């Protein structure tokens, strides 16, 4: 069994994932072999398992999972900056035909990972990569969030939302976030002004919090009608709307009449194309620095699912029942 490992495999669409032994990977040039301690479960993983998520280009059967935290075991050729025994985290596979993170070992492109923040456990670190990279690519890369700006995060208690709130705050912005009534206390605990989107109209909260001027940056992490609401909430001329789920058909008129800007955020591109992977590693180093400085945490669901409970973990994510990010734990902390 020395050269085998356990992995969670989506064998066909709609079927339960199977946990079984497969060959343990060998790191190629530019790769490191990582012993996976924890793997984050994202909504995209559950979509791929049902046969949806075509944009992820992950034909089945496949080992699923994008996010990991673990320990470097072995270095492939031409790898610098990592050493055996080093704790790392990253968004490392599970799409584009690559093996995912829900396995005991994974060979990953060294450009996609970074040293794990010492302030976070393996489960927290495994919950962070996809959502933090998504938040950073919107707020920093596209919108250059900075002091003096009013930033509105839609879905502030969600995976991307909670780290987007903290990132905008860390970069000096004044942060507001929408959520349901049940999530408002959590949003406040992150340091944002909480807005109950069901209790207040867009016009009402724009008037209350910006004296009717609109927000400098609006980040939609929800999609659908929330993106339309974002177009109404943004400040004329200099305002910038971002969405990581802007995949529907939308009227641009409200945005155009404000002469404002829109940017889409699609975080998977470097994994799918191989281009720009160094930037993901750089973003993760920024995440680790913020976490180590006490400016970034992530709420993880308290249940530590094990690999043989992967189907329960997927159900929890698909049904939105987790209190925070759902993580599969492969090695005890």
Question: What's a concise summary of this model?
Answer:
Helix content is 30%, strand content 24%. The chain contains eleven helices and 15 strands.
Provide an overview of this structure:
- The strands form three sheets. Strands 3, 5, 6, 7, 8 and 15 form a six-stranded antiparallel β-sheet that branches. The chain has a six-stranded parallel β-sheet with strand order 11-10-9-12-13-14, sandwiched between helices.
- Helix 4 links the parallel strand 9 and strand 10.
- The chain is globular, with a radius of gyration of 20 Å.
- With 333 residues, the chain is an alpha/beta fold.
- The mean pLDDT is 97.
- It contains eleven helices and 15 strands.
- The chain has two domains: 180 residues, Quinone Oxidoreductase, Chain A, domain 1, CATH 3.90.180.10; 134 residues, Rossmann fold, CATH 3.40.50.
- Its EC number is 1.1.1.-.
- InterPro entries: ADH-like_N, ER, GroES-like_sf, NAD(P)-bd_dom_sf, Quin_OxRdtase/zeta-crystal_CS, YIM1/Zinc_Alcohol_DH_Fams.
- Keywords: Oxidoreductase.
- One of its GO terms (molecular function) is zinc ion binding.
């Amino acid at each position: 069994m020395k050269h085998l490992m356990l992995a969670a495999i989506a064998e066909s669409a709609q079927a339960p994932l199977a946990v079984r032994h497969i060959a343990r990977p060998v790191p190629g040039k530019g790769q490191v072999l990582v012993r996976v301690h924890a793997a984050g479960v994202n909504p995209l993983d559950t979509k791929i398992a049902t046969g949806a998520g075509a944009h992820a280009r992950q034909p089945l059967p496949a080992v699923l999972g994008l996010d990991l935290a673990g320990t470097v075991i072995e270095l492939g050729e031409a790898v610098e900056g990592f050493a055996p025994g080093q704790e790392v985290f990253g968004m490392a596979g599970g799409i584009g035909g690559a093996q995912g993170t829900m396995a005991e070992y994974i060979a990953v492109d060294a450009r996609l990972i970074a040293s794990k923040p010492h302030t976070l456990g393996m489960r927290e670190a495994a919950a962070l990569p996809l959502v933090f990279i998504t938040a950073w690519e919107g707020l920093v890369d596209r919108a250059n969030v900075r002091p003096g700006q009013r930033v509105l995060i839609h879905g502030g208690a969600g995976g991307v939302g909670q780290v987007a709130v903290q990132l905008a705050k860390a970069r000096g912005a004044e942060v507001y976030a929408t959520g349901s009534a049940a999530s408002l206390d959590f949003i406040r605990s992150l340091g944002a002004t909480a807005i109950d989107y069901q209790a207040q109209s867009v016009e009402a909260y724009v008037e209350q919090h910006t004296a009717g001027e609109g927000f400098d940056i609006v980040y939609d992490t929800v999609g659908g009608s929330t993106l339309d609401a974002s177009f109404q909430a943004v400040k004329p001329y200099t305002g910038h709307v971002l969405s990581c789920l802007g995949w529907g058909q939308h009227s641009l008129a409200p945005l155009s009449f404000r002469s404002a800007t829109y940017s889409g955020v699609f975080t998977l591109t470097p994994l799918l194309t191989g281009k720009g992977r160094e930037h993901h590693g750089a973003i993760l180093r920024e995440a680790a620095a913020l976490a180590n400085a006490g400016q970034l945490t992530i709420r993880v669901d308290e249940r530590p699912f094990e690999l043989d409970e992967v189907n329960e973990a997927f159900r929890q994510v698909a049904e939105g029942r987790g209190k925070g990010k759902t993580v599969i734990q492969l090695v005890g902390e």
